[in-house]
Amino acid sequence: MFRKHKTEKKFKVVITQNVSSIFENYKQIKADSVEACGILIGKHSEDGRRITLDFATPPSLNDRRKKYSFKINSQYHQKVLNQQFYESQNESVYLGTWHSHPEPIPSPSRCDINDWKKQYEKNKCLFDKMIFIIVGESATRYWLINNGEISEIKKECIRYENY
């Protein structure tokens, strides 16, 4: 499916409080909960060693959400991205997607991996790194696509900030 190698220690992902709150709010911890999904918006550092996630869109009313799947409504999320891009004076960009899984420690499905590869192919002309996140019931896991290769991001490379 994907390489199991880990990201290098020098690479960092910074997650702001509003992003981690979105993840916390949409964990599938109730028996009748459905998958949630959204896009990740933020900035790449100039040296390519840091990605800051400033914003995560919550699910829209037009996203199709089921217990074990989702279909994101691009129109709503694109509108939010355009607004964030404008308000940041063209600094905040699309970085990837996030979604939830109804399992304690989430693992990407074949469908997830294929979607990530498709998103990377569409956006690789803009940047060589993208982030994909799955929020589980008790853990959140992070993956990086760097020059087309998918790897899990080490926990020590994730930093949470309150701003």
Question: Mind sketching the topology for me?
Answer:
Blueprint: E1 12-16, H1 17-25, E2 37-44, E3 50-56, E4 64-65, E5 70-71, H2 74-87, E6 93-100, H3 110-123, E7 129-135, E8 140-146, E9 149-152, E10 158-161
Parallel strand pairs: 1-3, 1-10, 6-7
Antiparallel strand pairs: 2-3, 2-6, 4-5, 7-8, 8-9
Structural class: alpha/beta
Largest sheet: 8 strands, mixed
Ends: how far apart? Answer: 36 Å
Q: In what range is the share of β-strand residues?
A: 25-35%
- Order of secondary-structure elements: EHEEEEHEHEEEE
Number of helical runs?
A: 3
Describe the protein:
The chain is an alpha/beta fold. The protein is globular and about 45 Å long. 23% of the residues lie in helices and 33% in strands. The strands form 2 sheets. The protein has an 8-stranded mixed beta sheet with strand order 9-8-7-6-2-3-1-10, with helices on both faces. A two-stranded antiparallel sheet has the order 4-5. It has one domain: Cytidine Deaminase, domain 2 (3-Layer(aba) Sandwich). The chain contains 3 helices and 10 strands, in the order βαββββαβαββββ.
Task: Provide the descriptors you would attach to this structure in a database record.
163 residues, alpha/beta, Cytidine Deaminase, domain 2, eight-stranded mixed beta sheet, two-stranded antiparallel sheet, 3 helices, 10 strands, 33% strand, globular
